[in-house]
Amino acid sequence: MKIELKEVAEKLKAANNIIVTAHINPDGDAIGSSLALTQILKSMNKQVRVFIDDVLPPNFAILPQIKIIESSNETDEKEILADLLVVLDTQTDRIGNVLKLVKAPILNIDHHITNEGNNVDWLYLNANAAATCEIIFELSKLLPVTLTEEIAHCLYTGLATDTGFFNYANTKPNTLRAAAALIEAGVKPNVIAEEMERKSLSDFTGLVETLKTVQFFYDGKVAGLFVNEAIAHLVDSTEGFIDLVRVIDGVEVAFLLTCKAENFCRVSMRSRTVDVSAIARSLGGGGHIRAAGCTIKAPFDEAKKIIIEAIGKALNG
Ligand code: 5GP
Ligand code: MN
What we know:
- By secondary structure, the chain is α/β, with parallel strands linked by helices.
- 37% of the residues lie in helices and 21% in strands.
- The chain contains 12 helices and 14 strands.
- The strands form 3 sheets. It has a 6-stranded parallel beta sheet with strand order 3-2-1-5-7-8, with helices on one face.
- Helix 2 (28-43) links the parallel strand 1 (17-22) and strand 2 (47-51).
- The two termini are 33 Å apart.
- 44% of the residues are buried.
- The model has no long low-confidence stretch (mean pLDDT 97).
- Manganese (II) ion (MN) is lined by residues 29, 89, 111, 131-132, 162.
């Protein structure tokens, strides 16, 4: 059932024992919104645990309280009973084992237009919000909390990373108002920007190798980058790789294909014109009109054919 933000606030106030989670392949918005909401709820004297069922990229190590994030893959508990499971920044198909482990009604808070609210008790979806962190910022105004510098740091990180540091089309006046309030609460934008841009030497080497793989399709309207198995061994994170080809003149859709394991490839897409969320959805993924992704369970070369064909269909049709 779709609900309003006011009702989200009421549900959170009414619950005492809350589990917070977000999507696997976690990004700044998933981690930032989870940590911010957890700290907000703790300040309201709730019992809260936060689970993200994946490796956390090293760039997020400076986020306040990042160490409280647990992985359900590392617990012996057979089930966790709670009053509420809050799923952030995704629908429930991308939260890993948490879905099975936690027995609680599900409150889903998201900004992805492709979220259909399947298998949740309540969905608050605001596809106009640049980030789930923007929603949590608005939510905090409806709760008896003060935004500490630590909470603000987490929220700003999600806002900044989901908007390409306030460059993408999802950056709205409200996004910048939220960012301004977070800076007033003590956030240092330069510190967060520097930390997010930081790359390990092996990630840098992986980036150089990846850029050499660039290929153009459909008269230069599509640019692809390929993190094959050999390159995948070099890189921990491909964050930002796609942005370097997205900007080439004439490119309408950029994609990055990453080999994660045998018969398991990840696709990231960015677009200037075409709705890439529809392409992603046709392959079982999702996202936003200009940024979306999916998983293709096939060998690398086959996945390459599948994604090029799917993008071609969207371009021509
Ligand atoms: P990225 O390319 O940065 O991984 O993802 C771009 C956007 O698409 C993000 O908002 C991300 O959450 C969404 N996205 C990426 N992969 C998937 C997927 O497999 N399923 C869904 N539903 N959304 C995805
Ligand atoms: Mn997001």
